[in-house]
Design goal:
single chain; 332 residues; alpha/beta; TIM Barrel; 11 helices; 33% helix; disordered N terminus
Amino acid sequence: MKPENVCYDIAMMKNNEPIIFDTADGQELRINMIGSWLKRHFGSKIVKLSLDGGFTCPNRDGSKGTGGCLFCSASGSGDMASDAADNITKALKDQIRLLSAKWPEARYMAYFQSHTNTYASVDVLRKTFDPVLDHPDVMGIAIATRPDCLPDDVLDYLGELNEKTFLWTELGLQTIHDETAKAMNLCHNRKDYDNAVQKLRSRGIRTVTHLILGLPGETPEMMRESLQYVCRSESCEPAIFGLKLHMLNVVRGSGLPERYPGYVPYGTMEEYIHQLIDLIEIIPPEITLHRISGDAPRQTLIAPEWSYKKRTILNSIHREMRLRNTWQGKAL
């Protein structure tokens, strides 16, 4: 079974046969991971090119706040991104040249991750995003932003992009609980997120929502409430295209170590994996998963000290799902 954009009815969900999303690597992938989804959609492997467009953030320049979100590094959570601010086209081609040796048949998604990538005039956005679409192997663009940084003229421009390429917009919600958002200095709230999702949906733009697991003060039930909220459906269609579930990484250069000295989100890898799988079981199968672990560079990572072991974490998640005979959406 290879589900894509379909709606699972109650009868199907009561059928106790696992939903297998992909078997390409010889394993039964029980999560609707974006990599497999894109390969089915485009007919070839799609690699994301992480680009830094040189944007800042209203939570750093004083218009909303200063210092950034408490968990955010100095790079705006874009530690893995290539700096494209001076020359977008050169940075894009450099990455493709490096990656083409490993994946000669691949095509690409341009991913603007660092800071707030709609926090500029439409003219600036055009000069940043339009050039990447001229490359024949770039199939689309992913733009990460804050839910409170989508004025109407920017939304109209995103609507134009959506008509000529494959686009999704990522919203850094992190939590629906406003008390946590305030403690983390997010300077936006659930109402901002709801408004952004509604406006993006009205223009037919795919939305990918970021949630962080393990924020200080949040219980497993609070994290579950955030997940259920963003996965809500309208007329059997999920409100969002995709999800990023980030394990909180405490990193050097963020405000978190000073505000919460010694804080460790998860004591063991096993603790995180078990909670994550419990959450995956309540995610509708139609929603794509874009991340299910953390991704901080080892040299800046403080805690959890094992979270840089991305491949080990991912393999353990897939293995544990097979052992539990579970899959994305099973508990619905």
